[in-house]
């Protein structure tokens, strides 16, 4: 903090006043500055006024409401914020609803809601008081909720002598709600309910009225149902949308290219129900492209069925995307489309938009052409089937296709993969948990998802088609939505550079970083104790991908232009791109309309939000299923790694099953701990004990609550201080001198789930 003591007769210089303004948590006025530096009298006031004008003219400060000054592009003391989700460390994040500065707004962490108030969900808007931590980081505390979001709580109803209680399912909300008999709405014991908060009284528990009954918590489906309703995912389609879907039919061949003789195949997970892409490849017969390949990527023609401004379109836009849970899908489109007419089922005629792609022997995209067609899938294959066939163990379905279909696909994939390697993409393929349920809907297993070459094959085909879609729109001068991913911000670069230097790695200072710079560090760390720690901190430094009509390229994939085209059944962004291509190339009805063209910025912001909302809900459901899986092992010891470090505690990822849980900072042994954000560590104020990202730990499971998804750990007391045999020692991986491999649950936009990888991120 700036030293504001003043010697008699002295006046602070410009740098001193500027430091005071920068260190202030909120914008400041002349009166506060004068008080801080003990300025008085008309001469001092005039000198201060002139100094502030000089700082403003230099661009060092900006003047806001009531002539208060702050660093450039600072946020106001009070602002309307929209909740964007939770970050890698579990903290609730938000962004200002209005932002006129350059680039992305600063990061905002929302403080926990007051006791008795429902927690915030993605998309909620609040009026909040902000405090600046630094130029790119703020804390905010809710003043009040906006947009009618006040007072709806999801919880479980239990009877009580005075009526009943609702126990909230949100692990951050510990306050029970009183339900008087008149407000029970026939809720039964153990039933999951949505309840409206009633006006608060001064005495006793806050009251609520049961608004909706959702089913009994003993049912296996309740786990994901809680996640769905907690995050506000729309679940019911309007009757008009359902009618439109039920009246849809496969189109005729008129105006379409007949692709039914090509042996296109779908390759998906074994549990997939909607098949929105099919692939085929052949060596390019053009002698001018020796060693090159002709690829065909056929995508369900959702734009034919979902027309702009229709009831289906409005419902799809509201959802933004499908959300996937271990036991259900919350689809973007009604089942009559998503699982039937828009699903490329084998041996059935289906409408498609197909990309013809020609690549050279090095995997570079030479040219492309988009057609609207009618296709008939030759087979529905799984990743495991295709990989087994490639590895010499074909089955009944793949044996007839091995030489004519599967082998050419792998031939083309080899070229695309080589191009990817030369391009130098950012490869942060951290483990992804897969929850397998038994026939009763109970968790049978939690294990890492297997990553096969067949997965990579489909991913590369989809990426190539997405690049072609973006290129086609740019060449036609047609507005559309790009999938953009910026390079890390300058402050994140500097923080990462400082951390890596401390453990012996160098991130170069160059005008513009490339993925190859990170890949070089990852390659050097591979196989060492630092490997996943380095991956984790690089991952945390990345920007978040989003949808925008302004193309800035995709940093993680090292691509100049990129648009999501390959999954319109489950992503509204892809539907917009399909409509833009249809309009640009005159491919018939269902093209992008003028209203959507004018509103692409708003559309991009909305579906970026719905994407984050769905991802948060999916992650929440996984946490709840995991808690259910661990519930009967409370008290057991587990080994794991510190996968996140926050002000409020340590996140732990178990080695055995990838389960995540928290050790609250309040129960760490024998000290008060401060969060060293740059070092990714909690540091004891008295002992200097450090708990650092990536360190190996042994923990005791203290709580596993499927209702809230809360999994809490503690450090076993039998292990002493648990940071080594002596507090000052460095012979234990929890010390900063010996970081060990983390497993982590951090996120960045380029970290892809299996479905995202298939669709090309």
TrEMBL record:
Q: What is this protein called?
A: Ribonuclease R
Query: Residue spans with biased composition (Basic and acidic residues)?
Result: 732-741
Is RNA-binding included in the keywords of this UniProt record? yes
Give one GO molecular function term: exoribonuclease II activity
Q: What is its EC number?
A: 3.1.13.1
Q: Where in the cell is it found?
A: Cytoplasm
**Which family does the UniProt entry place this protein in?**
Belongs to the RNR ribonuclease family. RNase R subfamily.
Taking every annotated instance into account, which residue ranges of this chain make up the domain S1 motif?
A: 635-716
Q: What does this protein do?
A: 3'-5' exoribonuclease that releases 5'-nucleoside monophosphates and is involved in maturation of structured RNAs.
Which key words tag this protein in UniProt? Answer: Cytoplasm, Exonuclease, Hydrolase, Nuclease, RNA-binding
Q: Which CDD domains match?
A: S1_RNase_R
The secretion signal range is: none
Catalytic reactions on record: Exonucleolytic cleavage in the 3'- to 5'-direction to yield nucleoside 5'-phosphates
Locate the region Disordered: 95-122, 723-761
